[in-house]
Design a protein that fits this description.
The complex is a heterodimer of chains A (about 230) and B (about 575). Helix content of chain A is about 70%, strand content about 0%. Chain A has about 230 residues and is an all-alpha fold. The N and C termini of chain A lie far apart (about 60 Å). The longest helix of chain B is centred in the first third of the chain and has 19 residues. Chain B is globular, with a radius of gyration of 24 Å. The chains are: A mainly alpha (about 230), B alpha/beta (about 575).
Chain lengths: ~230, ~575
């Protein structure tokens, strides 16, 4: 194990406890979702030549990686938003990796290629986040459909990306970031994040496999998934 | 009450869609209402879905139960004004076309959520009048247009006689309630009431293919307002009528005439609503016709349909039924010049007549405005004929074609197949030598309206003159009126055999006039054929403040159709009276 200060040690312990709590709450969330009946389509496949609910489910599940699959991500305006989505979520992955790896193997994050890659993702995600804050706050449509939770979640992630970038810079000894407080603060913010997420819209990723699979199976059974364009 | 009902409607798929939305706004531009009203952000699909999401969060979501304001939860009970607003959103700004569902990165089925909202409102008695009346008729009479059994049978017999006259022999009678047939043919009540030629055309195709088929005396309505109103109970009841009739008749399969929501609700959703464990095999009549051609049971001559055509996918067929290649295959077999419209198939735009919109006349202006994207799609093809496989789409497209002055006509595949049919010698009409003309062969009746008196009511002089000429050429005596008051007075005085009534008139409009005619003792029994160019007046069919009109024709009027309708309506009225 790496040597840590008492403040950092406490932050790490809190962080791991938060992770366990999140896992428990998520387990309860999934059990709650599964407590509802799964509606089964008893009708015969819509089109023998095209109907395949497994194929529909697979296509639906992976369409997150197929921007051409949906009109909303295929059009130029939508594609730009899709790219921002990719960057944003790569930043989330980088931020989570930073939180965990920094507590067990911080030196790994100091390897230049790893460290700079993480940093680039975090900075890019921060910028996308700032754009999204303005988008949500300034566009009348987004204001209409946004709840306080939507704003708070986005602001929290923006701060998390920003703090994460500074923390990564601290670990790499660049940008003049020298205070361990950054890492401590980052871990506490991540802990809060882990505790808050199951109760907020951010838990959408927990539901993603379910919603995408359900709609994929339903429309795959009918024969309209995968979408055919003519 | 709504909370309890919502709890009953929750299943894993619905809950997934309720919790899965991240309010990213990506569904926005997939909706034809959003495209038509870009400054009205309440048109965005996620906003519409949030209306039911609010209720869900308040009652079923952890955070929403404790901090409702934080996640946009909303407690019930709602005020009457709230319910009216919800009604306008769920019924008036969404046709449940499901296009937004396909554009959601999270896989949220917004159209299903809107249907859930409709179901909750229906449960507490809040719905457009047209939906209420039609649903009631489907519960009580077994069909959505309040067609009485004797009227249905009379229309089938009428079409049967016409077909036999066309063919010149008695082998082509439309079989009714024939047990042990292979095929039970179910139709849309619109066909019985306002477009019976499609029944005749289908009958001709079945006859030519040598099919062993029948139409049922009951359980014949393939439409299902349960799909539109969100009432699964009604949905199950309607579908069950067809399934049980099919089992009673011992048929091999149900063939569903070209009706998008009828196909979806009978073929798919009805099976689930009715709790069927071994559903009767079912197919669209498009599939049946296609197979007849492929199997060599019927022959077609595509040169009979030479004009440039485009195809409109019904949302229920394409997006919710995976049924989009077969109609195209059939269309290519029976027409010379097919031009695809874009986008198409599952990504096609709604005709704007779906989701029961045709029965909600209060939302017609908004619906027609939302149809701009569809009008642009059609215009871009350069086609003058739009083909579709859905009766709702026929009406929806006809409305938007008039509204946007596209100068197109709408046809269904059954019209094209019947027109392209090449008849074998033994099936040819006795006096017609050329093949393929059977669908347009007319019985030569010199003056079918001889001895009849018809009251023509229209505020436009040129229209009155035109209608008068058509009726007089058919042998009728014609009297005219130019406004509602005069119409009521003339009807009482002359006791005509039929009233041809325009609905758009200054002063007392046609709807008021129609209601007054129906409520006046001297005129209540006089049959009325509505002739109108305004789609919102379909309220006389759906809202039905009084018995609906015996006929309903859109302007511009086809002369032959008008005379045929007038003749049938008068004959039918006399038969009933006797």
């Amino acid at each position: 194990m790496h040597e840590v200060s008492p403040a950092l040690h406490t932050a790490e312990v809190v962080h791991w406890i938060a992770l366990v709590v999140m896992a428990i709450v998520y387990t309860m969330r999934i059990r709650w979702l599964l407590s509802f009946n799964l509606a089964k389509d008893k009708s015969a496949p819509g089109n023998p030549g095209q109907s395949d609910k497994q194929r529909g489910a697979r296509w639906s599940f992976f369409n997150v990686a197929m921007p051409w699959s949906m009109e909303s991500t295929r059009k130029p305006k939508g594609f730009i938003f899709y790219m921002s989505f990719v960057i944003f979520h790569m930043g989330v992955v980088a931020g989570i990796a930073l939180a965990f790896v920094s507590t067990i193997a911080p030196d790994f994050l100091r390897i230049p290629v790893v460290g700079y890659t993480t940093l680039v993702f975090l900075v890019a995600a921060f910028l996308v986040s700032v754009y999204r804050v303005f988008r949500r706050a300034l566009r009348p449509l987004m204001r209409l459909i946004s709840t306080p939770d939507d704003y708070f979640s986005l602001l929290m992630l923006t701060a998390w990306f920003g703090l994460g970038a500074c923390t990564q810079a601290y670990l790499m000894g660049i940008w003049g970031m020298t205070s361990e407080t950054l890492l401590v603060a980052y871990l506490y913010l991540t802990s809060f994040f882990l505790l808050y997420v199951p109760f907020s819209k951010i838990s959408h990723y927990l539901y993603y496999p379910f919603t995408r699979t359900y709609i994929g199976r339903a429309l795959g059974q009918r024969g309209s998934y995968p979408v055919v364009r003519g | 009450m709504m909370e309890e009902q919502l709890a009953k409607k929750l299943n894993r798929q619905v809950v997934g869609s309720l919790v899965g939305c991240v309010h990213c706004g990506m569904c926005d531009e997939s909706c034809h209402y959003v495209l038509a009203f870009p400054d009205d952000h309440k048109m965005t699909p996620s906003y519409k879905a949030d209306q039911v999401r609010k209720l869900f969060k308040a009652n079923h979501d952890w955070t929403g139960s404790v901090f409702p304001w934080w996640v946009g939860a909303d407690q019930v009970p709602l005020s009457d004004d709230d319910l009216e607003t919800l009604k306008d959103i769920a019924f008036g700004t969404c046709t449940n076309c499901r296009r937004c569902t396909l554009s959601c990165p999270m896989g949220v089925d917004t159209a299903t959520l809107n249907r859930v909202m409709r179901g909750l409102l229906t449960h507490v008695g809040v719905m457009p009048e047209g939906v209420r009346v039609v649903s009631k008729d489907q519960w009580e009479l077994g069909n959505q247009m309040g067609v009485l059994k004797e009227d249905y049978i009379d229309t089938i017999e009428w079409m049967s006689e016409e077909l036999e006259e066309d063919l010149g022999h008695n082998d082509a009678a439309i079989p009714l309630e024939k047990k042990g047939s292979k095929v039970m043919y179910c139709i849309n009540p619109r066909e019985v009431k306002y477009d019976p030629r499609t029944i005749k055309e289908a009958a001709l195709i079945f006859h030519t293919a040598g099919e062993d088929w029948t139409m049922p005396e009951e359980g014949w309505d393939n439409t299902n307002f349960g799909l539109f109103s969100g009432d699964d109970g009604l949905g199950g009841a309607c579908a069950k009528r067809e399934y049980e009739k099919a089992r009673e008749l011992g048929v091999d399969k149900i063939v569903i005439s070209e009706c998008g929501h009828g196909f979806r609700s009978t073929r798919f959703e009805g099976v689930n609503w009715a709790g069927e464990t071994e559903p009767v095999p079912m197919e669209s009549s498009v599939m049946t016709m296609l197979n007849y051609i492929k199997d060599g049971k019927i022959k077609v001559d595509k040169t009979k349909n030479p004009e440039k055509m485009t195809f409109h996918d019904s949302c229920n067929n394409a997006r919710s039924g995976g049924f989009f290649e077969e109609p195209r295959e059939l269309l290519r077999l029976v027409s010379m010049d097919f031009q695809e419209m874009y986008p198409n198939r599952a990504e096609n735009y709604c005709c704007t007549g779906g989701g029961g919109a045709m029965s909600m006349s209060e939302y017609t202006p908004k619906r027609l405005q939302s149809a701009k994207v569809k009008a642009d799609q059609i215009r871009a093809t350069g086609a003058k004929t739009v083909v579709t496989s859905c009766h709702n789409c026929v009406d929806g497209l006809n409305d938007l074609i008039k509204h946007y002055d596209l100068g197109c006509e709408v046809k269904q595949l059954v019209n094209l197949v019947a027109n392209a049919l090449v008849l074998d010698d033994d099936k040819k009409p006795a006096e017609v030598a050329e093949p393929g003309e059977i669908a347009v062969t007319k019985v030569a009746v010199e003056e079918p309206l001889a001895g009849r008196k018809i009251l023509v009511v229209d505020d436009e002089e040129d229209v009155r003159t035109f209608l008068t000429t058509v009726f007089e050429d058919a042998g009728a005596e014609v009297v005219t009126a130019s406004d509602g008051d005069e119409a009521v007075a003339m009807a009482s005085e002359h006791q005509p055999d039929l009233i041809s009534l325009d609905l758009s008139m200054p002063g007392k409009d046609g709807v008021e006039t129609f209601v007054e005619l129906r409520r006046t003792a001297e005129t209540e029994e006089i049959p009325v054929c509505v002739v109108t160019g305004h789609p919102e007046f379909r309220q006389v069919i759906y809202d039905r403040p009084v018995t609906p009109p015996e006929g309903y024709l859109g302007k511009p009027v086809d002369e032959d159709k008008l005379v045929a309708y007038a003749h049938h309506i008068i004959e039918h009225r006399e038969e009933k009276a006797n």
